[in-house]
Amino acid sequence: MNIYRALGSIHANFLKNGDLHTTVMHNTYDKFAKNSSAEDVAFMNYGYHSLDVSEESPVLDPKDEIHRYPIQLYHKAVSGIDLEGKALLEVGSGRGGGANTIKKYLNVESIVGIDLSGEAVNLANRDFGGEGIQFEEGNAYSLPFDDNSFDVVLNVESSHCYTQFGNFLSEVQRVLRPGGHFMYTDFRITKDIMNVRNHLNATDLEIVLYEDISSNVVKALDLDTYRRLEMMERTNFSPMEKKKLYYMSGVKGTAMYRDFVLGVRTYYRYILKKTG
What we know:
This protein is an alpha/beta fold. The protein is built from eleven helices and seven strands.
């Protein structure tokens, strides 16, 4: 892509997305989706590993074992409620691996994934779309669904990219059915963690559970470092882009990893319920 086409793409996406940060993230993830294999980027989260020997690990198909730690984060994110027979929306579904694993292992009736990246949506539908699971392009600040459409809304390691977090929460509340749940996990710089709580308290959603899972995420990164390094080596990126990807990967030695270890960043999990 030459410089004029690149600038044209940024301008078009800026008009659609409404702010520069969201536009940059949109373009970055679109490029990542185009230049990586489906296996490598089916899951983009930092993963989860239990530190409690009494907590059972999910039994996975052998072909899914390579993604055990990211899959375990999805299982953790939705634990605490029964998904059987439920209609679930994942906001920020990426390349679709998380939505697919929920459909495969957790008996949800139907699942829709929505993502800002049209390229990721196309590839998710190609790799995982089918009966009871589909993916659509859309913006978290204006969800393209009717009121009271879903029993569960899921958001995994995506909201830290949102510049309009309050608008996103309003949309979550709107599309949830009464009695429905918002299952939410992500990370923030620890000194800003109360900003998240304040936004949640400003909604009519009831906080059912809050959990700090930073240590579990660090353990998963410890166990998954080599796979992540190998994945980055396979990408068709420039040295500058690989440097940025290395930082984002959270592997040992990165500032992101150290932030979790030292408590500079907190990785948390919430369950909220729509009571009205």
